[in-house]
Amino acid sequence: MRVVGKLMSANYRAFGRLSISTKSHHNNNTTPTLHCSPISDHKTLSELRKMASVEAKIAPSMLSSDFANLASEAHRMLTFGADWLHMDIMDGYVSLSLFHFVPNLTIGAPVIESLRKHTKAYLDCHLMVTNPLDYVDQLGKAGASGFTFHVEVSKDNWPELVKQIKSKGMRPGVALKPGTPVEEVFPLLEGENPVEMVLVMTVEPGFGGQKFMPDMMNKVRTLREKYPKLDIEVDGGLGPSTIDAAAAAGANCIVAGSSVFGAPEPA
To answer: Which SUPFAM superfamilies match (predicted)?
Structure first.
């Protein structure tokens, strides 16, 4: 039995009393399971029963870490109790006047490959790129654990994309920007070869340190009601003041960057 950092403490108000137990995981980490009691004002009994089948995961966003000491930063986060390491992969500028999916350029497969040599952690890769299919082979070889692509750039080829992701031993997920209706991911969850996670962006993708958008919790509620056992991840502006709202809405995978790495006591 363990508690996953101070960030999880806000969940006590969302779910009532939370006990967090661990079980073995394929990557040799442990993953906490939510056990909820008693019932809080925020959740009905039926809602809590639905939540009982999903696992709480904290995924520090390595975009906010010290890139010059990435391996030691990863080790530090895992020592503090992190379940996943969230890796933001952005395609960046083509020229001064034209950019791909987001304007920033971050890490790629070589960094994932280098980090994999130093950790067995689940590397939760979020692809903010125009052509995610181009990255599947190289990230699979590099040792990525999860491959989350954006629905906005994959409407025409997502069945093939998901198939390729799984063939490389990675777990497929789909992300959506704040302006994208949640209904656009339904086909990817209900197809013959569905994705296994939905990432709801609670800020505009491309930059860290933005303010949390509470309206995005409506998407999370819709997903949790429709898909009770789904991993639902939220990313952007998450910290002690906002994790409560995310958990109450039904998110079980929390990405936190600035609030963790910028904290006096990140644990």
So the answer is: Ribulose-phoshate binding barrel (SSF51366)
Burial of 229 (C-beta count, 10 Å sphere; 0-12/13-18/19+): exposed
Cis peptide before 38 (omega within 30 of 0): yes
The answer to whether the beta carbons of residues 220 and 234 sit under 8 Å apart is yes
- Select from 91, 83, 101 the least CA-distant residue to 177: 101
| Rounded CA Rg of the chain | 17
Q: Find, among 148, 14, 136, 138, the residue nearest to 84 by Cα.
A: 148
Question: What is the pTM for the complete model shown?
Answer: 0.79
Which amino acid is located at 162 in the chain? V
Question: CA 102 from chain center: how many Å?
Answer: 18
Catalytic residue check, 231: no
> For tokens 């010059």, what's the residue?
68
pLDDT in tens, 136-176: 999 999 999 999 999 999 888 999 999 999 999 999 999 99
Give catalytic status of residue 235 as yes or no.
Answer: yes
Instruction: Indicate the length of the chain as a whole number.
Output: 267
Instruction: Convert the pLDDT of each residue in 23-71 to its tens digit.
Output: 333 344 444 444 433 334 455 545 555 555 799 999 999 999 998 999 9
| DSSP letter assigned to residue 150 | E
- CB-based contacts of 88: which residues, under 8 Å, 6+ apart? 61, 62, 63, 106, 107, 126, 128
- Which of 83, 124, 231, 235 is labelled catalytic? 235
